[in-house]
Specification:
By secondary structure, this protein is an alpha+beta fold. The chain contains twelve helices and 21 strands. The strands form five sheets. An eight-stranded antiparallel β-sheet has the order 16-12-14-13-19-20-18-21. Strands 5-6-10-8-9 form a five-stranded antiparallel β-sheet. A four-stranded mixed β-sheet has the order 1-2-4-3, with no helix packed on it. The chain is globular and about 60 Å long. The protein binds flavin-adenine dinucleotide. The site of flavin-adenine dinucleotide has 33 residues, from β3, α2 and β10.
Amino acid sequence: MRWKSDRYTGWGRVIEAEGDLARPERLSALRDLPPTPAIGARRSYGDACLNSDGRAVDMTRLDRVLSFDPATGVVEAEAGVPIGELARLFVPRGWIPAVMPGTGFATVGGCIAMDVHGKNHHRDGAFGAHVLSITLVHQGKFKTITPDKNPTLFRATTGGMGQTGMIVSARLQMAACSGETMKVRESRAGDLDEHLALLDASDATYTVGWIDAAAKGAALGRGIIEEGEHSLDPAPRPGKPKSVPFNAPHFALSKPIVKAFNARYYGRVPEGGRTRFRTVEDFFFPLDRVLNWNRLYGKRGFHQFQCVLPTGEVAVLRELLEVIARSGLASPLAVLKRLGPQGDGLMSFPMEGYTLAVDFPNRDRALDMIRFLGTKAGQAGGRVYLAKDSLADGAIVRQMYPGHAKWAAEAAKADPKRQLETDLTRRLGLRSVS
Ligand SMILES: Cc1cc2nc3c(=O)[nH]c(=O)nc-3n(C[C@H](O)[C@H](O)[C@H](O)COP(=O)(O)OP(=O)(O)OC[C@H]3O[C@@H](n4cnc5c(N)ncnc54)[C@H](O)[C@@H]3O)c2cc1C
Protein backbone atom coordinates (compact mmCIF):
# COMPACT_ATOMS: atom_id res chain seq x y z
CA MET A 1 0.00 0.00 0.00
CA ARG A 2 1.31 3.47 -0.84
CA TRP A 3 1.52 5.97 2.04
CA LYS A 4 1.72 9.71 1.62
CA SER A 5 2.45 12.21 4.34
CA ASP A 6 -0.36 14.77 4.50
CA ARG A 7 -1.97 17.48 6.59
CA TYR A 8 -5.68 17.00 6.98
CA THR A 9 -8.64 18.18 9.07
CA GLY A 10 -12.20 17.25 9.95
CA TRP A 11 -15.12 19.24 8.53
CA GLY A 12 -14.73 22.06 11.09
CA ARG A 13 -11.14 22.73 9.88
CA VAL A 14 -10.01 23.81 13.36
CA ILE A 15 -7.79 20.91 14.36
CA GLU A 16 -5.19 19.75 11.90
CA ALA A 17 -3.32 16.45 11.87
CA GLU A 18 -0.14 15.53 10.10
CA GLY A 19 0.51 11.90 9.31
CA ASP A 20 0.64 9.21 6.66
CA LEU A 21 -2.51 8.45 4.68
CA ALA A 22 -3.20 5.60 2.24
CA ARG A 23 -6.23 5.33 -0.08
CA PRO A 24 -6.41 1.68 -1.13
CA GLU A 25 -8.62 0.59 -4.01
CA ARG A 26 -8.92 -3.11 -3.14
CA LEU A 27 -10.19 -4.75 0.01
CA SER A 28 -7.34 -7.23 -0.22
CA ALA A 29 -4.89 -4.38 0.56
CA LEU A 30 -6.33 -4.25 4.09
CA ARG A 31 -5.60 -7.87 4.89
CA ASP A 32 -1.89 -7.60 5.66
CA LEU A 33 -2.07 -4.25 7.37
CA PRO A 34 -1.25 -3.88 11.06
CA PRO A 35 -4.26 -2.41 12.94
CA THR A 36 -4.65 1.14 11.59
CA PRO A 37 -7.48 3.67 12.12
CA ALA A 38 -9.88 3.93 9.17
CA ILE A 39 -11.36 7.25 8.14
CA GLY A 40 -14.15 8.09 5.72
CA ALA A 41 -15.08 11.37 4.04
CA ARG A 42 -13.97 13.38 7.11
CA ARG A 43 -17.47 14.77 7.63
CA SER A 44 -17.06 14.51 11.38
CA TYR A 45 -16.26 18.02 12.53
CA GLY A 46 -13.54 17.65 15.16
CA ASP A 47 -10.76 15.12 15.71
CA ALA A 48 -12.63 11.79 15.37
CA CYS A 49 -11.17 11.29 11.90
CA LEU A 50 -7.60 12.39 12.73
CA ASN A 51 -4.53 10.45 13.78
CA SER A 52 -1.70 12.91 14.36
CA ASP A 53 1.81 11.57 13.85
CA GLY A 54 0.40 8.19 12.92
CA ARG A 55 -1.20 6.43 9.97
CA ALA A 56 -4.79 6.34 8.81
CA VAL A 57 -6.48 4.49 5.94
CA ASP A 58 -8.79 6.67 3.87
CA MET A 59 -11.58 4.29 2.82
CA THR A 60 -13.23 6.47 0.19
CA ARG A 61 -11.93 4.49 -2.80
CA LEU A 62 -13.39 1.28 -1.44
CA ASP A 63 -16.73 2.37 -2.79
CA ARG A 64 -18.32 -0.59 -4.57
CA VAL A 65 -21.85 -1.85 -4.10
CA LEU A 66 -21.30 -5.60 -3.71
CA SER A 67 -24.85 -6.91 -3.97
CA PHE A 68 -28.48 -5.78 -3.91
CA ASP A 69 -31.67 -7.77 -3.55
CA PRO A 70 -34.56 -5.84 -5.16
CA ALA A 71 -37.10 -8.05 -3.37
CA THR A 72 -35.88 -7.38 0.17
CA GLY A 73 -33.97 -4.08 -0.16
CA VAL A 74 -30.84 -5.61 1.38
CA VAL A 75 -27.69 -4.03 -0.01
CA GLU A 76 -24.09 -4.97 0.69
CA ALA A 77 -21.67 -2.10 0.26
CA GLU A 78 -18.00 -1.41 0.83
CA ALA A 79 -17.29 0.98 3.68
CA GLY A 80 -16.34 3.90 1.44
CA VAL A 81 -19.67 4.11 -0.42
CA PRO A 82 -21.24 7.52 0.29
CA ILE A 83 -24.69 7.18 1.84
CA GLY A 84 -26.05 9.71 -0.68
CA GLU A 85 -24.88 7.45 -3.49
CA LEU A 86 -26.98 4.60 -2.10
CA ALA A 87 -29.98 6.95 -2.08
CA ARG A 88 -29.24 8.08 -5.65
CA LEU A 89 -28.95 4.49 -6.89
CA PHE A 90 -31.83 2.88 -5.04
CA VAL A 91 -34.60 5.46 -4.48
CA PRO A 92 -35.65 5.12 -8.16
CA ARG A 93 -35.99 1.36 -7.44
CA GLY A 94 -38.16 1.94 -4.37
CA TRP A 95 -35.56 1.61 -1.60
CA ILE A 96 -33.83 4.23 0.55
CA PRO A 97 -31.14 3.86 3.24
CA ALA A 98 -33.20 3.48 6.42
CA VAL A 99 -31.28 6.27 8.18
CA MET A 100 -29.35 9.15 6.61
CA PRO A 101 -27.44 11.98 8.27
CA GLY A 102 -27.61 15.56 6.95
CA THR A 103 -24.82 15.00 4.42
CA GLY A 104 -24.80 12.44 1.63
CA PHE A 105 -20.99 12.49 1.59
CA ALA A 106 -20.74 10.49 4.85
CA THR A 107 -19.56 6.95 4.05
CA VAL A 108 -21.19 3.70 5.11
CA GLY A 109 -18.18 3.07 7.42
CA GLY A 110 -18.49 6.54 8.97
CA CYS A 111 -22.26 6.12 9.42
CA ILE A 112 -21.74 2.84 11.29
CA ALA A 113 -18.78 4.09 13.33
CA MET A 114 -20.79 7.11 14.56
CA ASP A 115 -24.17 5.32 14.53
CA VAL A 116 -25.59 8.38 12.82
CA HIS A 117 -29.17 9.53 13.29
CA GLY A 118 -31.48 11.08 10.73
CA LYS A 119 -34.70 13.05 10.58
CA ASN A 120 -36.59 9.82 11.39
CA HIS A 121 -34.81 8.83 14.60
CA HIS A 122 -38.02 9.21 16.62
CA ARG A 123 -39.56 6.43 14.50
CA ASP A 124 -36.75 4.27 13.19
CA GLY A 125 -33.79 4.64 15.55
CA ALA A 126 -30.19 5.14 14.44
CA PHE A 127 -28.15 3.69 11.58
CA GLY A 128 -26.93 0.62 13.48
CA ALA A 129 -30.48 -0.65 13.97
CA HIS A 130 -30.64 -1.36 10.22
CA VAL A 131 -27.23 -3.02 9.82
CA LEU A 132 -27.57 -6.77 9.31
CA SER A 133 -23.87 -7.62 9.34
CA ILE A 134 -20.49 -5.89 9.32
CA THR A 135 -17.22 -7.23 7.96
CA LEU A 136 -14.34 -5.96 10.05
CA VAL A 137 -10.60 -6.30 9.88
CA HIS A 138 -10.39 -7.82 13.31
CA GLN A 139 -7.04 -8.94 14.70
CA GLY A 140 -5.54 -9.30 11.22
CA LYS A 141 -8.45 -11.26 9.70
CA PHE A 142 -11.70 -10.41 7.95
CA LYS A 143 -14.49 -11.23 10.38
CA THR A 144 -18.20 -10.86 9.68
CA ILE A 145 -20.24 -10.02 12.75
CA THR A 146 -24.00 -9.87 13.28
CA PRO A 147 -26.15 -8.58 16.13
CA ASP A 148 -27.17 -12.19 17.00
CA LYS A 149 -23.85 -14.03 16.72
CA ASN A 150 -21.54 -11.35 18.20
CA PRO A 151 -23.87 -9.09 20.19
CA THR A 152 -21.31 -7.26 22.36
CA LEU A 153 -18.78 -6.73 19.58
CA PHE A 154 -21.59 -5.54 17.33
CA ARG A 155 -22.83 -3.08 19.96
CA ALA A 156 -19.25 -1.84 20.43
CA THR A 157 -18.82 -1.35 16.69
CA THR A 158 -22.00 0.61 15.86
CA GLY A 159 -21.13 4.01 17.30
CA GLY A 160 -17.72 2.64 18.34
CA MET A 161 -15.63 5.20 16.40
CA GLY A 162 -13.65 2.50 14.60
CA GLN A 163 -12.03 1.21 17.78
CA THR A 164 -13.01 -2.45 17.27
CA GLY A 165 -11.44 -2.68 13.82
CA MET A 166 -11.60 -1.28 10.35
CA ILE A 167 -15.10 -1.64 8.83
CA VAL A 168 -14.60 -3.17 5.41
CA SER A 169 -18.19 -3.62 4.23
CA ALA A 170 -21.70 -4.05 5.59
CA ARG A 171 -25.09 -5.49 4.72
CA LEU A 172 -27.81 -2.92 5.23
CA GLN A 173 -31.57 -3.28 5.32
CA MET A 174 -32.97 -0.34 3.37
CA ALA A 175 -36.50 1.02 3.83
CA ALA A 176 -39.17 0.79 1.15
CA CYS A 177 -40.04 4.20 -0.26
CA SER A 178 -42.90 5.20 -2.49
CA GLY A 179 -41.84 7.90 -4.89
CA GLU A 180 -38.69 9.86 -5.61
CA THR A 181 -40.04 13.18 -4.38
CA MET A 182 -40.47 14.51 -0.86
CA LYS A 183 -43.69 16.25 0.10
CA VAL A 184 -42.62 18.68 2.81
CA ARG A 185 -44.91 20.53 5.19
CA GLU A 186 -43.24 23.62 6.69
CA SER A 187 -44.75 25.21 9.82
CA ARG A 188 -43.67 28.25 11.76
CA ALA A 189 -43.10 28.06 15.51
CA GLY A 190 -43.05 31.46 17.21
CA ASP A 191 -41.16 30.39 20.33
CA LEU A 192 -39.58 27.41 22.04
CA ASP A 193 -42.80 26.02 23.57
CA GLU A 194 -44.50 26.05 20.19
CA HIS A 195 -41.41 24.56 18.53
CA LEU A 196 -41.27 21.62 20.96
CA ALA A 197 -45.03 21.11 20.81
CA LEU A 198 -44.86 20.81 17.02
CA LEU A 199 -41.92 18.38 17.17
CA ASP A 200 -43.73 16.29 19.83
CA ALA A 201 -46.99 16.21 17.90
CA SER A 202 -45.48 15.29 14.55
CA ASP A 203 -46.22 11.80 13.31
CA ALA A 204 -44.50 12.37 9.97
CA THR A 205 -41.86 9.88 8.84
CA TYR A 206 -39.20 12.61 8.80
CA THR A 207 -39.24 15.63 11.11
CA VAL A 208 -36.64 18.32 11.74
CA GLY A 209 -36.66 21.85 13.15
CA TRP A 210 -34.54 24.77 11.98
CA ILE A 211 -34.04 27.07 14.94
CA ASP A 212 -33.20 30.77 14.91
CA ALA A 213 -30.43 30.61 17.50
CA ALA A 214 -30.03 34.41 17.38
CA ALA A 215 -33.62 35.09 18.51
CA LYS A 216 -34.06 36.31 22.10
CA GLY A 217 -36.83 37.21 24.56
CA ALA A 218 -40.34 36.24 23.47
CA ALA A 219 -38.95 34.89 20.18
CA LEU A 220 -36.42 32.57 21.86
CA GLY A 221 -36.57 29.17 20.19
CA ARG A 222 -38.59 30.27 17.17
CA GLY A 223 -38.08 28.33 13.98
CA ILE A 224 -39.50 26.26 11.18
CA ILE A 225 -40.52 22.62 11.48
CA GLU A 226 -40.23 20.49 8.36
CA GLU A 227 -42.22 17.26 8.06
CA GLY A 228 -41.45 15.06 5.08
CA GLU A 229 -43.07 12.08 3.34
CA HIS A 230 -42.18 10.31 0.12
CA SER A 231 -44.44 11.25 -2.75
CA LEU A 232 -45.09 10.42 -6.39
CA ASP A 233 -45.53 14.09 -7.34
CA PRO A 234 -42.82 15.71 -9.44
CA ALA A 235 -40.33 18.01 -7.70
CA PRO A 236 -38.59 20.97 -9.29
CA ARG A 237 -35.02 19.96 -10.21
CA PRO A 238 -32.56 22.08 -8.25
CA GLY A 239 -29.78 23.85 -10.20
CA LYS A 240 -26.15 22.70 -10.32
CA PRO A 241 -24.32 22.54 -6.99
CA LYS A 242 -22.41 25.73 -6.15
CA SER A 243 -19.03 25.92 -4.48
CA VAL A 244 -17.54 28.38 -1.99
CA PRO A 245 -14.33 29.17 -3.89
CA PHE A 246 -12.22 30.62 -1.06
CA ASN A 247 -12.12 31.19 2.69
CA ALA A 248 -14.71 33.87 3.47
CA PRO A 249 -13.71 37.02 5.40
CA HIS A 250 -14.53 37.00 9.13
CA PHE A 251 -17.53 39.36 8.76
CA ALA A 252 -19.37 36.96 6.42
CA LEU A 253 -21.18 35.44 9.38
CA SER A 254 -21.15 38.48 11.70
CA LYS A 255 -24.00 39.12 14.14
CA PRO A 256 -26.00 41.63 12.01
CA ILE A 257 -25.71 39.47 8.90
CA VAL A 258 -26.86 36.35 10.75
CA LYS A 259 -29.77 38.22 12.39
CA ALA A 260 -30.93 39.58 9.05
CA PHE A 261 -30.54 36.22 7.31
CA ASN A 262 -32.46 34.39 10.05
CA ALA A 263 -35.31 36.93 10.02
CA ARG A 264 -35.69 36.49 6.26
CA TYR A 265 -35.41 32.71 6.46
CA TYR A 266 -38.10 32.58 9.14
CA GLY A 267 -40.32 35.04 7.27
CA ARG A 268 -40.24 33.07 4.02
CA VAL A 269 -42.73 30.55 5.44
CA PRO A 270 -46.22 32.08 5.71
CA GLU A 271 -47.83 32.17 9.15
CA GLY A 272 -50.22 29.35 8.31
CA GLY A 273 -47.38 27.19 6.94
CA ARG A 274 -46.98 25.79 3.43
CA THR A 275 -46.36 22.52 1.56
CA ARG A 276 -43.57 22.13 -1.00
CA PHE A 277 -42.25 19.32 -3.18
CA ARG A 278 -38.50 18.77 -3.03
CA THR A 279 -36.06 16.22 -4.34
CA VAL A 280 -34.73 13.57 -1.96
CA GLU A 281 -31.22 15.14 -2.10
CA ASP A 282 -32.53 18.63 -1.42
CA PHE A 283 -34.61 17.49 1.56
CA PHE A 284 -32.05 15.21 3.20
CA PHE A 285 -28.78 16.92 2.25
CA PRO A 286 -29.59 20.63 1.74
CA LEU A 287 -26.06 21.77 2.58
CA ASP A 288 -24.43 19.43 0.06
CA ARG A 289 -25.66 21.74 -2.71
CA VAL A 290 -22.98 24.21 -1.65
CA LEU A 291 -19.67 22.40 -1.94
CA ASN A 292 -16.98 23.41 0.58
CA TRP A 293 -19.48 25.47 2.55
CA ASN A 294 -17.20 25.05 5.57
CA ARG A 295 -15.00 27.77 3.98
CA LEU A 296 -17.70 30.31 4.88
CA TYR A 297 -16.17 30.38 8.36
CA GLY A 298 -12.79 31.51 7.07
CA LYS A 299 -9.37 30.04 7.70
CA ARG A 300 -9.88 29.67 11.43
CA GLY A 301 -12.68 27.19 10.89
CA PHE A 302 -15.66 26.53 13.11
CA HIS A 303 -17.13 24.25 15.76
CA GLN A 304 -20.45 22.57 15.91
CA PHE A 305 -21.93 22.10 19.35
CA GLN A 306 -24.43 19.25 19.46
CA CYS A 307 -26.00 17.84 22.56
CA VAL A 308 -29.10 15.85 23.46
CA LEU A 309 -31.10 16.63 26.59
CA PRO A 310 -33.67 14.34 28.19
CA THR A 311 -37.25 15.27 27.31
CA GLY A 312 -37.94 16.57 30.83
CA GLU A 313 -35.05 19.06 30.75
CA VAL A 314 -36.75 21.79 28.72
CA ALA A 315 -35.67 24.42 31.29
CA VAL A 316 -32.02 23.53 30.59
CA LEU A 317 -32.63 23.63 26.85
CA ARG A 318 -34.07 27.13 27.30
CA GLU A 319 -31.04 28.16 29.36
CA LEU A 320 -28.63 26.89 26.68
CA LEU A 321 -30.54 28.80 24.01
CA GLU A 322 -30.46 31.97 26.11
CA VAL A 323 -26.67 31.70 26.52
CA ILE A 324 -26.25 31.11 22.78
CA ALA A 325 -28.56 33.99 21.77
CA ARG A 326 -26.83 36.40 24.21
CA SER A 327 -23.41 35.48 22.83
CA GLY A 328 -24.30 36.71 19.34
CA LEU A 329 -22.00 33.99 17.99
CA ALA A 330 -24.43 31.48 16.49
CA SER A 331 -24.54 30.96 12.74
CA PRO A 332 -27.80 30.31 10.84
CA LEU A 333 -26.98 26.60 10.84
CA ALA A 334 -28.90 25.51 13.89
CA VAL A 335 -31.14 22.48 14.26
CA LEU A 336 -33.53 21.20 16.91
CA LYS A 337 -34.77 17.60 16.62
CA ARG A 338 -36.72 15.15 18.70
CA LEU A 339 -34.86 11.86 19.20
CA GLY A 340 -36.46 8.54 20.07
CA PRO A 341 -35.26 5.94 22.57
CA GLN A 342 -31.63 4.92 22.93
CA GLY A 343 -30.55 2.07 20.64
CA ASP A 344 -28.07 -0.76 21.15
CA GLY A 345 -24.75 0.96 20.34
CA LEU A 346 -22.72 1.20 23.55
CA MET A 347 -21.28 4.61 22.60
CA SER A 348 -24.13 5.79 20.40
CA PHE A 349 -25.15 9.40 20.82
CA PRO A 350 -28.95 9.30 20.38
CA MET A 351 -31.15 8.98 23.45
CA GLU A 352 -34.78 9.98 24.07
CA GLY A 353 -34.95 13.76 24.16
CA TYR A 354 -34.24 16.93 22.21
CA THR A 355 -31.04 17.41 20.28
CA LEU A 356 -29.69 20.88 19.58
CA ALA A 357 -26.93 21.49 17.04
CA VAL A 358 -25.45 24.95 16.42
CA ASP A 359 -22.39 26.07 14.43
CA PHE A 360 -20.05 28.71 15.87
CA PRO A 361 -17.00 30.35 14.33
CA ASN A 362 -13.73 29.41 16.02
CA ARG A 363 -13.28 32.32 18.48
CA ASP A 364 -12.02 32.29 22.09
CA ARG A 365 -15.45 33.37 23.39
CA ALA A 366 -17.12 30.57 21.47
CA LEU A 367 -14.77 27.95 22.91
CA ASP A 368 -15.55 28.94 26.51
CA MET A 369 -19.24 28.93 25.74
CA ILE A 370 -19.20 25.53 24.01
CA ARG A 371 -17.40 24.00 27.00
CA PHE A 372 -20.01 25.55 29.30
CA LEU A 373 -22.89 24.24 27.17
CA GLY A 374 -21.41 20.73 27.15
CA THR A 375 -20.97 20.67 30.92
CA LYS A 376 -24.55 21.88 31.44
CA ALA A 377 -25.86 19.18 29.09
CA GLY A 378 -23.95 16.53 31.05
CA GLN A 379 -25.26 17.80 34.40
CA ALA A 380 -28.80 17.54 33.03
CA GLY A 381 -28.33 13.87 32.12
CA GLY A 382 -27.68 14.59 28.45
CA ARG A 383 -24.62 14.11 26.28
CA VAL A 384 -22.54 15.73 23.56
CA TYR A 385 -22.12 14.16 20.12
CA LEU A 386 -18.54 13.00 19.55
CA ALA A 387 -18.85 13.28 15.75
CA LYS A 388 -19.00 17.03 16.28
CA ASP A 389 -16.84 17.58 19.34
CA SER A 390 -13.32 18.94 19.78
CA LEU A 391 -13.62 20.69 23.14
CA ALA A 392 -15.37 18.52 25.71
CA ASP A 393 -13.81 17.28 28.92
CA GLY A 394 -12.93 13.56 28.93
CA ALA A 395 -14.10 12.77 32.46
CA ILE A 396 -17.47 14.42 31.81
CA VAL A 397 -17.88 12.66 28.46
CA ARG A 398 -17.14 9.24 29.92
CA GLN A 399 -19.94 9.78 32.45
CA MET A 400 -22.37 10.93 29.75
CA TYR A 401 -22.18 7.54 28.04
CA PRO A 402 -23.43 4.77 30.38
CA GLY A 403 -22.14 2.08 28.00
CA HIS A 404 -18.60 3.48 28.08
CA ALA A 405 -16.91 0.92 30.39
CA LYS A 406 -18.39 -2.04 28.51
CA TRP A 407 -17.37 -0.49 25.19
CA ALA A 408 -13.81 0.23 26.39
CA ALA A 409 -13.46 -3.39 27.54
CA GLU A 410 -14.65 -4.70 24.16
CA ALA A 411 -12.37 -2.29 22.27
CA ALA A 412 -9.46 -3.47 24.44
CA LYS A 413 -10.22 -7.09 23.46
CA ALA A 414 -10.34 -6.18 19.78
CA ASP A 415 -7.33 -3.85 19.83
CA PRO A 416 -5.19 -4.68 22.87
CA LYS A 417 -2.25 -2.52 21.78
CA ARG A 418 -4.49 0.48 21.17
CA GLN A 419 -3.26 0.82 17.60
CA LEU A 420 -6.69 2.07 16.47
CA GLU A 421 -6.70 5.13 18.72
CA THR A 422 -7.44 8.48 17.09
CA ASP A 423 -6.88 12.05 18.28
CA LEU A 424 -10.45 12.00 19.68
CA THR A 425 -10.05 8.86 21.77
CA ARG A 426 -6.67 10.05 23.11
CA ARG A 427 -7.95 13.56 23.94
CA LEU A 428 -10.95 12.22 25.85
CA GLY A 429 -9.18 9.19 27.32
CA LEU A 430 -11.97 7.05 25.92
CA ARG A 431 -10.01 3.82 25.80
CA SER A 432 -9.42 3.93 29.57
CA VAL A 433 -11.97 2.61 32.01
CA SER A 434 -12.27 5.04 34.95
C1 LIG B 1 -23.43 18.85 6.85
C2 LIG B 1 -23.36 17.72 7.83
C3 LIG B 1 -24.53 17.23 8.36
C4 LIG B 1 -24.49 16.18 9.28
N1 LIG B 1 -25.67 15.72 9.78
C5 LIG B 1 -25.66 14.69 10.65
C6 LIG B 1 -26.88 14.15 11.13
O1 LIG B 1 -27.97 14.60 10.78
N2 LIG B 1 -26.82 13.09 11.99
C7 LIG B 1 -25.62 12.55 12.38
O2 LIG B 1 -25.64 11.59 13.15
N3 LIG B 1 -24.45 13.04 11.93
C8 LIG B 1 -24.45 14.09 11.08
N4 LIG B 1 -23.26 14.58 10.59
C9 LIG B 1 -22.02 13.93 11.03
C10 LIG B 1 -21.61 12.80 10.07
O3 LIG B 1 -22.71 12.08 9.63
C11 LIG B 1 -20.72 11.81 10.85
O4 LIG B 1 -19.61 12.49 11.36
C12 LIG B 1 -20.22 10.64 9.99
O5 LIG B 1 -19.50 9.76 10.83
C13 LIG B 1 -19.30 11.12 8.87
O6 LIG B 1 -18.92 10.01 8.07
P1 LIG B 1 -17.50 10.00 7.36
O7 LIG B 1 -17.49 8.91 6.37
O8 LIG B 1 -17.16 11.36 6.89
O9 LIG B 1 -16.55 9.58 8.59
P2 LIG B 1 -15.27 10.33 9.17
O10 LIG B 1 -15.67 11.68 9.63
O11 LIG B 1 -14.13 10.24 8.23
O12 LIG B 1 -14.98 9.41 10.45
C14 LIG B 1 -15.89 9.42 11.54
C15 LIG B 1 -15.52 8.28 12.50
O13 LIG B 1 -15.77 7.04 11.88
C16 LIG B 1 -14.59 6.25 11.85
N5 LIG B 1 -14.60 5.53 10.59
C17 LIG B 1 -14.86 6.03 9.37
N6 LIG B 1 -14.82 5.04 8.45
C18 LIG B 1 -14.53 3.90 9.12
C19 LIG B 1 -14.35 2.54 8.73
N7 LIG B 1 -14.47 2.14 7.47
N8 LIG B 1 -14.05 1.64 9.69
C20 LIG B 1 -13.93 2.00 10.98
N9 LIG B 1 -14.10 3.26 11.40
C21 LIG B 1 -14.40 4.21 10.48
C22 LIG B 1 -13.43 7.24 11.97
O14 LIG B 1 -12.29 6.65 12.55
C23 LIG B 1 -14.05 8.26 12.90
O15 LIG B 1 -13.98 7.84 14.24
C24 LIG B 1 -23.25 15.62 9.68
C25 LIG B 1 -22.06 16.12 9.14
C26 LIG B 1 -22.11 17.16 8.22
C27 LIG B 1 -20.82 17.69 7.64
